[in-house]
TrEMBL record:
This is Putative 4-hydroxy-4-methyl-2-oxoglutarate aldolase. It comes from the Bacteria. Belongs to the class II aldolase/RraA-like family. It is an enzyme of class 4 (lyase). CDD domains: RraA_family.
């Protein structure tokens, strides 16, 4: 059975603008909740920021990803819960072309991805637990889009804010994102003062100053 719920726009333009300047590692100074433990970026440097479109697939059948790609809008992040399968890849080069054509910001996969060289060359932001040559199939069995999913023990709702860089990923509920973002930016300001005291400038990360 398929359950395809409408897309949720939880992330506002103001939050997006604010989080352009927020590092996940600064958020990690304030909260553990929402950190997606164990997922790695496919390449570095990497940046990911956007509004979650959630997908849940049973281990073998990736049909629901196609439905999610159909309803996603520019700036969305597809967050795929593979129901505990870490070994099989549900994302690769051709899904990346489809996503880039829709200006999707990136993809987060609880399991594995494939076609690493092609995706890296395309520079499309992907986070996953692993890499595998064994893939899912489009079998039209079952799946969900825009329901609550679980990735690395973190519950992700459609419309959540996803923010990632070289250090990893946080998923933030838009209700809390304003407060967390302000605290993070304030901390980054203080860090910049300290950095300059040590005689350094930050020319690698988000501005935050
Ligand atoms: O089809 C898949 O499931 C993954 C893949 O190889 C691609 O997107 O190119
Ligand atoms: Mg492929």
């Amino acid at each position: 059975m398929f359950r395809i719920e409408p897309r949720v726009q939880g992330v506002t333009p103001e939050l997006l603008e604010m989080y352009e300047a927020v590092s996940p590692s600064t958020i990690g100074h304030f909260t553990d909740f929402g950190f997606i433990h164990g997922l790695q970026p496919l390449f570095r440097p990497i940046q990911l920021l956007g509004n979650a479109v959630t997908v849940r697939i049973p281990h073998l059948d990736s049909t629901a990803i196609r439905h999610a790609l159909e309803l996603a809008r520019p700036g969305d992040v597809l967050v795929v819960d593979m129901s505990g399968d870490d070994d099989r890849a549900c994302w690769g080069e051709f899904r990346t072309y489809a996503a880039m054509a829709k200006q999707i910001a990136g993809v987060v996969v609880s399991g594995s991805v494939t076609d690493v060289r092609a995706i890296t060359k395309l520079g499309f932001p992907v986070y996953s637990r692993g890499i595998s040559a064994k893939t899912t199939r489009a079998m039209e069995l079952e799946g969900e889009v825009n329901t609550t999913v679980s990735v690395a023990g973190v519950s992700v709702q459609p419309g959540d804010l996803v923010v990632g860089d070289d250090d990893g990923l946080f998923v933030v509920n838009p209700r809390d994102a304003g407060e967390i973002g302000l605290k993070a930016i304030e901390k980054q300001r203080r860090e910049e003062v300290k950095r300059r005291e040590y005689g350094f400038v930050n020319d690698t990360g988000p501005a935050g100053i």
